[in-house]
Design goal:
heterodimer; A: alpha/beta; Rossmann fold; 4 domains; 9-stranded mixed beta sheet; 18 helices; B: alpha+beta; Glutaredoxin; 4-stranded mixed beta sheet
């Protein structure tokens, strides 16, 4: 590389999450060390980057120290981009595996390897070179330090020839680098760590850009998914186009009275959480919003966890919601998933694919609480943030239902996480009074909307969902009483505090009084003392005088008189 | 490998030493190899030398990516390789041993 282009340039890997994480890709004309245990995706990462390069009309070379070229091609073929590699001549593989039983009798060089790579990529501009499983060779280097020198040699070679290179090897038992490569993290400018851990009996994969000299990058361990599309980083994938402006358009929920309560409907692209106990008509309300979307001629994607399409649709017919015609017209697409079947991050990728495919105006997830119970070490919060972020950017109105526990309709921790992010939160409940079970609806919050704070009755009938005007609830009264009680409690507490202050004030006054008395007593005592002192010094003076006089011969009488 | 057997016997020399230019390890390997052959009373054998810097594609042909490397083709067509500067004499002698198999 000439002196003029010393500046860091990046070469996109074509893996959107990785390119976003590294703000543009891996360093061009340098080596990147990829460390990970067996099965963490090192080889796939190399193949996928190469496939993307081939797709872009670039090319490269794959030097394999572990798998045979045939194994490599089979491996690549199991991914959606595999065909790009197997059918292209823009890259080639070098089988660099040692033959079985190869002995080592002294230190060795890798110049031959570099020479053959150089001859293979000659004439190719900005090639990607993957050296996969270099540890197979270098760990056999008997001279200490030789392996690390050779990794450096590879990096220097890259800089000289402008290769962008991935060098992969296994992680050591302790820490980052294997023993024979101790200190390697200081040598190479960029390092990517791949890990896989079994958490709750499921394999969780992670990718971490441990080091990227000269470049801003995210150093967090990022959940990584490996599916038929290869390596993906769901949380850092830029979902589609950004819609910068906040929509002011209102969309109807399909329930006129509810729209009125919400100040005209939901904002387009906002998120709605519907929470409630089992049987409080969450699904019905959500489906009603989907139906309204379809009736406007827009599309709604209904993702149901753990419930099948046929019974779902049938059950809604009983409350006057006929989804089937809309499903037939492809305005509503129903998608059923098993929540615990895969990791949260895998669910998200699938949701993203569905959204890209169907381009819905409204997304219903029923219930979101099931999705959040899916395994995944990162926990539900990033998933929810990601999902709401995605729908907001795409201008999709998101409707999520959440199941709550008996007696705690607004509690539950996962719900708490959703409710803080959602723009609008509707709480459904039922109220048993005088032998009747009545469904109630109340709007807990609605951002940017002057919404009603009143609880209403939710009516389900053959004609669909409707709300009844303010209903006299026993709980309302109770709430009032509780509030009054609370107020009186607060007042008595204030009274107690005032009395306590008064008591303390009096106590202090008493102590000040005591101190004053003490002061005057001590003052008197001091005066007395001073008087006494004067008195006694006067006496002493006189005595001294008398003594002096007594020593004079003519004053005998005086002395005798005094004694 | 059946067809390769004749080829081995006719064209491939018994010993091939892969080197990279004038690298110190390559020079050492040459020296160690000659000494070992002498010790075994086989100084008549002249190993073929291939410089991978000049003929890089030869490394793919012979699957040799580390240098120096000594490749031995046995009479039965079996090929074995030993890597390194051959400073480990006992390993080298083992490798060359029973040369008349």
């Amino acid at each position: 590389m000439s002196e003029a282009d010393w500046r860091l340039q990046k070469q996109a890997t074509g893996i959107p999450g990785l390119d976003r994480l590294t703000h543009g890709g891996l360093p061009r004309g340098q080596a990147t060390l990829v460390l990970g245990d067996p099965g963490t995706g090192k080889t796939v990462l190399g193949l996928q980057i190469l496939a993307n390069a081939v797709e872009q009309g670039e090319g490269g070379l794959f030097v394999t120290f572990e798998e045979s070229p045939a194994q490599l091609k089979r491996n690549a073929d199991s991914f959606s981009w595999g065909g790009t590699l197997t059918e292209s001549k823009a890259w080639s593989a070098i089988d660099a595996r040692s033959s079985i039983g190869t002995e080592i009798a002294g230190g060795f060089d890798i110049d031959g390897l570099l020479a053959v790579i150089t001859s293979r990529v000659k004439g190719r501009k900005d090639p990607w070179i993957v050296i996969d499983g270099i540890d197979q060779l270098l760990q056999r280097q008997p001279e200490p330090g030789a392996a690390i020198d050779q990794v450096r040699q590879i990096n220097d070679h890259c800089e000289r020839h402008g290769w962008t290179l991935l060098l992969s090897g296994k992680t050591g038992d302790s820490g980052l680098s294997p023993r024979y490569l101790e200190g390697i993290e200081f040598m190479l400018p960029t390092m990517v760590l791949l890990t896989a851990r079994v958490i709750d009996r499921r394999l969780n994969r992670f990718l971490r850009v441990a080091k990227y000299r000269g470049s801003d990058h995210m150093t967090d361990e990022i959940p990584m998914v490996m599916n038929s599309r290869g390596i993906q980083l769901p949380y850092v994938t830029a979902p589609g186009e950004w819609r910068a402006k906040a929509d002011t358009e209102r969309v109807s929920t399909g329930i006129e009275r509810l729209d009125k309560l919400l100040g005209g409907g939901l904002y387009r692209g906002s998120s709605l959480l519907i929470s409630g106990r089992p049987g409080t008509a969450k699904s019905t309300l959500a489906a009603s919003i989907a139906q309204a979307t379809a009736e406007r001629g827009e599309r709604a994607l209904l993702v149901s966890f753990d419930e099948m399409e046929a019974p779902y649709v049938r059950n809604l017919v009983s409350v006057g919601l006929e989804l089937q015609p809309q499903i037939d017209e492809e305005r509503i697409r129903f998608y059923s998933r098993s929540a615990t079947g895969c990791l949260i991050s895998e669910h998200l990728l699938e949701l993203q694919r569905l959204i890209e495919d169907f381009r819905p105006h409204c997304l219903v997830i029923d219930p979101i609480s099931a999705l959040l119970k899916a395994p995944g070490s990162e926990g539900p919060r990033p998933a929810i943030e990601w999902l709401i972020d995605l729908t907001r950017k795409e201008g999709i109105t998101a409707v999520m239902t959440a199941l709550t526990d008996e007696g705690d309709p607004e509690g539950e921790s996962t719900l708490g996480q959703v409710s803080t992010i959602a723009d609008t939160w509707i709480s459904l409940d039922y109220n048993v009074r005088a032998g009747e079970r009545n469904r109630s609806i109340s709007i807990v919050k609605s951002r940017g909307t002057a919404h009603s704070n009143q609880q209403r009755e939710l009516l389900l009938s053959d004609d669909g969902v409707d709300l009844a005007d303010v209903y006299e609830f026993g709980t309302e009264v109770l709430m009032g009483t509780a509030r009054a009680q609370k107020q009186s409690e607060e007042q008595s507490a204030m009274r107690r505090a005032a009395m306590e202050r008064e008591r303390r004030r009096k106590d202090l006054e008493r102590r000040v009084e005591q101190a004053r008395n003490e002061l005057s007593r001590l003052t008197t005592e001091l005066e007395l003392q001073e008087q006494e002192a004067k008195e006694s010094s006067r006496i002493a003076y006189r005595h001294a005088e008398a003594v002096t006089r007594g020593r004079q011969p003519d004053a005998q009488d005086d002395e005798g008189g005094e004694g | 490998m059946n067809s390769g057997k004749q080829q081995v016997e006719s064209t491939v020399p018994a010993l091939t030493l892969f080197v990279t230019g004038d690298a110190p390890r390559s020079r050492r390997a040459r020296r160690h190899l000659n000494a070992a052959l002498k010790k075994l009373g086989q100084d008549s054998i002249k190993p073929l030398e291939i410089d991978l810097l000049e003929h890089p594609e030869q490394s793919i042909n012979h699957s040799v990516f580390a240098t120096p490397a000594l490749l031995r083709a046995r009479n039965d067509g079996e090929i074995s390789v030993i890597y390194g500067d051959l400073s480990d004499e006992s390993k080298l002698l083992d490798f060359l041993g029973s040369f008349n198999d």
